[in-house]
Amino acid sequence: MVTTRSGKSPTNATTPKKSPRKASPRAKSPKNVVSSTKNAVSPKKAAISPKKSAESLKKTAAAPVNHDDLELVHVIMLFRHGDRSPITPQVGKHLVMDDAEIKLWESKLPSQEKIESLGRIAKVVGMETHLPPPKDPRDGGEHPRGQLTQWGLDQMEEKGKKMREHYANFFKGISADDIYIRSTNVRRTIRSCQSLLHGLLPEFIPEEEEPKLHIRTANIVSLEPTFTQAEYGTMLARYKDKSIAHTLPPIPEHIGDTEDLDKQIRDVIGIDEDSHICYTSLREVLVCRNAHDVPFPNNMSKELYNRIVDYNTWEFHTLFGNPKDCHKGFNRGIREIAELIQRVIKESKHHKLTLLAVHDSTLIAFWNAFQLIIGNVFPQYSSTTVVEIYKKPSTNEFYVQVNFDGERMIPFKGQDGTMTSYSHVEKVIDEFFSSVQEDKEPPAKKQKSVTALIDGSIPVNLLASLPPDTWIRLSPAERASLMSTLPKLGGWWGFSAEDAAAENLRQLFLGVNFDFGNPLRRFRFPNAARTARINAERQIFENEMRQYTTSLTASILYHREQYLQVALTQDEVALAPRNLPPTAHQDIAEEAQNSSYFLAIRNALLSSPVALTVDQVFERLDSKWHLKIEADQVSMTPLMYLESALTFLSEPIPKGFADENIWSSPFVHQDRGTRTFSWINHSHTLMDDVRLQQLQQIFTSPFTEEDASMAPLKPMLAIAESHLTQTKPVLDKNVDDYKEPQFKLKMSEKTLNSCYFSKELYQAQDRQRYQQPTLPFMYYNPELQFQSTVGPLLPLGRFNDAALLTFVPELLPPQSVGLANITRDALARLPYRRGTRADIVHLVLLSIYLSPAASIDDVEVAVTRELDLLSNMCHP
């Protein structure tokens, strides 16, 4: 019977049960590499059929190796994270995580103090130690689900202690440079790795200084299969199809009939007949419950639990035992592990220890891809797979040995012993990548793609067709030739221009960064042509809006006129929105004249066949207009107001200031010799009425509308007037109840941010920034992991800061920098782009150009002045 719960398998009964041999004290790095050693992953190798490859592996079975002639040179340890809480909240109707169980799992989690102490030994970084993590780690489940328990941390620390004891001789004198650590970007794997290091390498726990060890995390998923939960469900469900049963590995006998197993699960767990049984979710929840003695639903037997776990184990081994499926989901992981092994073989100087914090699916995929005979085993929490690399000094040959959980060796398929030559491992890796050949694109289709690329009709990413490890495979000369094609992107904090270009290309080949690392992708320099274009587009838009408003108003007035001219029936009156008389007929011209001063002027001029003077027009107007003008308190007499209106109607606004359809020609003709006025167009339309009413609003706005810019000053004027009218008592400071006036600190004088640059870091970035004044620069705050970009130095039209600034050797003179650029750079370095004037002054005081003799009061005044100037600039 296969017992996956304990991690043991009877299929290994014929395998010699030898414990991993102690590392040789002569663990030296190999000086030379055998010239026949091939690349671990070579895209140029000829394809090998699985059948032919299997036969060749059997024929090349290695002869027994004398272990005394070998010395251990490297250890690669893949390990699953420690014990965790369940991820799935509910499976079926009866397996549900209720509030009581949630509280139980919360009590199992480590304290916050314990979690913080884990980070003391190793810092989480990107793929390079000087880079920050690409993104925050995944939680792996909604709290408290999917979280590492305290028992899980203890498991990993104990695992580290056992490994240190086993490899005691090999780890003597080990340094931080001898250790390479990788983890998937999940919290439970990262914390498991840190806990393992506490037991394995306790000498690296620092007291005060920064950790010397680094846990690398990547932006792309590589150390775990890339299948989604839905893809897992679809692929595993295929194995229930009886028509393909003969193509699958045999199901362990003790599992029995799978239909009977499904029926028992549906009855106990409460899964409907038409619902799919997800054995993966079921297994992970039951394993967590079993580990912490949480009862199974409906008194489910341990025998059924074992069958569920073993069947799901068979599903995973069947999935990743298929070369095509394994390559589809885990080719990046195998490529990365193969490259790690290849570096040990090829490089004369290399580290001793590689730690890979992974998941259960990673280990199963690794076993199957490397053709390791382990049986129907599911890796339990904290399970390990250790790859030991040995060297034979006399021949410079390398050998590989793999053990599982430190209990037994795992042989390679087709090999008699557990110690296998690296040449055989290399063939296994080649077979993995050559067994799945992608369909070649027809020549006609290729030609079409190239044509489409040339025409620019579709965007094509040429790098997407290359293997992700292309950059690593390139020679230094090839890398240099590619880097020469990139623009000079200096100014990355912590990078030289050459390193920045190399990092950009590395990320491009990984499929991460398609912007060539350009920090100016969203940055816009001041541009007079663009500003003029925006203003022109705004003017066109405003003209279109005026035309739309005019046509809309005309349409409303037209339909209103038609509506009022038609006699409505009694039924229509009842349905009308307003209670209108059925025979209502109003003269719209007369109504408009009663409501519009300009229409009244037009009717007065049209009432005479000859031109009229201002006095004659005044007499023809209704007296109500004169009273209204006086009531509006216009600062002129009604006669002067009328003359101004006539002059306004006789002088249209020039082109470019208004829409031509509204005000392109005068309405009134003015004879300056006789000082008379006449209406030009005697046949007016409804659109003319609308235009006149709009012009009346423009004409009367200076008299009737208030200046919006004066609104904030009105309260101050009212207070000043009230103070002027009051007599102020003389205050005697000798009086007992006299109090000094209280002043409040303004918000601009308070600091908003508590975390700033150190002076050394600030001035170090200053030095880099002002060495390349014509290029944009990216500032980086390592404490907050915040970065911002500022443009090239602004040209200075004046320089009044001689008393505040000082000369800096090897940099620009102060008169070429000025306090304006220093203030603008301080603005760019505000944490999260927010802060007060006091924050900006604080940063300016750290500048490398600021004179030590400058007083803070003078700096505050100067910074305030520069902020006012910068606020009036476009895109500072």
Automatic annotation (TrEMBL):
For this UniProt record, the keywords arranged alphabetically read as follows: Hydrolase
Cross-referenced InterPro entries: Acid_Pase_AS (IPR033379), His_Pase_clade-2 (IPR000560), His_PPase_superfam (IPR029033), Histidine_acid_phosphatase (IPR050645), NFRKB_WH_2 (IPR057748)
Query: Coiled coil where?
Result: none
Residue intervals passing through the bilayer = none
Q: Spans of biased composition, class Low complexity?
A: 40-51
Q: Which SUPFAM superfamilies does its entry note?
A: Phosphoglycerate mutase-like
User: What is the protein name for this chain?
Assistant: Histidine acid phosphatase
Organism field: Thraustotheca clavata
